[in-house]
Specification:
With 204 residues, this protein is of the alpha+beta class. It is elongated. The chain has a six-stranded antiparallel barrel with strand order 1-6-4-3-7-8. The protein has a two-stranded antiparallel sheet with strand order 2-5. The protein contains five helices and eight strands; from the N terminus they run αααααββββββββ. The longest helix has 16 residues.
C-alpha cells in the first residue's frame, strides 16, 4: 500500500499520471498531456474523471488506482473513490464480467433494487461442490456497469470480484452461474470474461 499521508490531491494525481504511457489515449482521444493541462489549472475533478477513463481501457498497476482513490476521498467524490478502490480489488483478486438478469420481484425474495457500486457481496453457485456432494457457493462482490442500481427483473453487465479467487479458477466464458442472497436464486448470469490473478489460475 502506498503511503499517501503527506500527499495532496495534485501530487496524488500527478503520481498516477506518471504511470500512464505517454501514447495512451481515451476513446475520445483525450491524452495524458490534455489531463496535465487540467491539473495545471487545478481542475481536479475533471482530471480525476479522465484518469479513470484512461485506466478503464488499459491494464495499469495497482498503484495507479490507489492514488486516485485517495485523491477522490480527499475531494469527497464518493462514487469515484468507490470505483478506484474497486479497481484495486480487481487487480488483487481478479474480476469476472457477466451478463446478469435478476429474477422479478414476484418470483424472488428481493423486492428492492440492488446497489450498483460494489456494496453487495452475494453468494454465487459456480459449480463447486461441498465435501458431502451438495452445491457449495462462493462469495463475490458485485459492481453494475453504467448503472447506479439494478432493479428486480433487470438485466445488466456486471463485474464480480471473488472473495477467494482460487474458488473461481475453473470458471470460463459462456458458463452460466447463479446469484443467491439466501437459499433461493436471486438471478442468473452468463460469464463474458474471466481475469483472475495468476496464482488463482489452474496449472496445465
Amino acid at each position: 500500500m502506498v503511503n499517501n499521508d503527506h500527499m495532496d490531491v495534485t501530487e496524488l494525481l500527478e503520481s498516477a499520471f506518471l504511470l500512464v504511457p505517454e501514447e495512451t489515449a481515451t476513446d475520445n482521444d483525450i491524452t495524458v498531456q490534455d489531463i496535465w493541462d487540467y491539473l495545471a489549472h487545478d481542475e481536479w475533478q475533471i482530471a480525476l474523471s479522465l484518469l479513470e477513463e484512461l485506466g478503464d481501457g488499459h491494464p495499469l498497476p495497482l498503484t495507479f488506482w490507489e492514488q486516485p482513490a485517495e485523491a477522490a476521498e480527499q475531494l469527497r467524490l464518493e462514487r469515484s473513490a468507490a470505483w478506484c478502490h474497486w479497481r484495486c480489488s480487481e487487480i488483487r483478486n481478479g474480476m469476472i464480467r457477466a451478463d446478469l438478469t435478476l429474477r422479478p420481484a414476484t418470483e424472488a425474495r428481493r423486492t428492492t433494487p440492488i446497489s450498483g457500486h460494489g456494496v453487495l457481496r452475494p453468494m454465487w453457485d459456480i459449480g463447486n461442490l461441498s465435501p458431502t456432494g451438495g452445491a457449495s457457493v462462493s462469495i463475490a462482490g458485485l459492481w453494475v456497469e453504467d448503472m447506479p442500481v439494478l432493479e428486480p427483473g433487470g438485466r445488466a453487465t456486471v463485474r464480480l470480484v471473488p472473495l477467494t479467487p482460487s474458488h473461481w479458477a475453473h470458471v470460463e466464458t459462456g458458463q452460466r452461474i447463479s446469484m443467491n442472497e439466501d437459499r433461493t436464486v436471486a438471478g442468473t448470469a452468463v460469464v463474458l470474461e474471466v481475469h483472475l490473478p495468476a496464482t488463482a489460475m489452474p496449472t496445465s
